[in-house]
Amino acid sequence: MKILCIFLTFVFTVSCGPSVSQKKTKEDVDRKRECYLVRGACKTSCNSWEYIYNYCNTEPCCVVRDYQKPVTKHITTHTE
Questions:
Q1: Rounded to whole angstroms, what are the CA distances from 22 to 17, 28, 55, 67, 73?
Q2: Residues 6 or more apart in contact with residue 40 via CB below 8 angstroms
Q3: CB neighbours of 53 closer than 8 A, spacing ≥ 6?
Q4: Which residues cross the membrane (predicted)?
Q5: What are 7-14's contacts with CB under 8 Å, separation 24+?
Q6: Distance separating alpha carbons of residues 54 and 40, to the nearest angstrom
């Protein structure tokens, strides 16, 4: 009787959890959502002006690099 209770507890515990495919699907959806939150796009390959943020399923999440204005040094000369 004790073994039967342990067996039934095990069966109910295993059957109530999410299946592996449901868990993977949820992870894929979460990754795509995170990609869109950083203004990225899931594409087959990224362009040279983009970087890979993470992976949406098997495709990379491509995010445009921030444009950084070139720093110019102003040379000032004093004439006396």
A1: 10, 10, 18, 39, 56
A2: 53, 61, 62, 63
A3: 35, 38, 40, 60, 61, 62, 63
A4: none
A5: none
A6: 10
- Answer whether 54's CB lies under 8 Å from 36's CB: no
Cα(29)–Cα(10) distance, integer angstroms: 30
The string of DSSP letters for 19-79 reads PHHHHHHHHHHHHHHHHHHTT-EE-SS--TTEEEEEEETTEEEEEEPPP-PPP-PPP----
Give the separation between CA 36 and CA 42, rounded to whole angstroms.
8
Query: How confident is residue 20, by pLDDT bands cut at 50, 70 and 90?
Result: low
pLDDT in tens, 24-76: 788 888 988 999 888 899 999 999 999 999 898 889 999 998 876 777 776 67
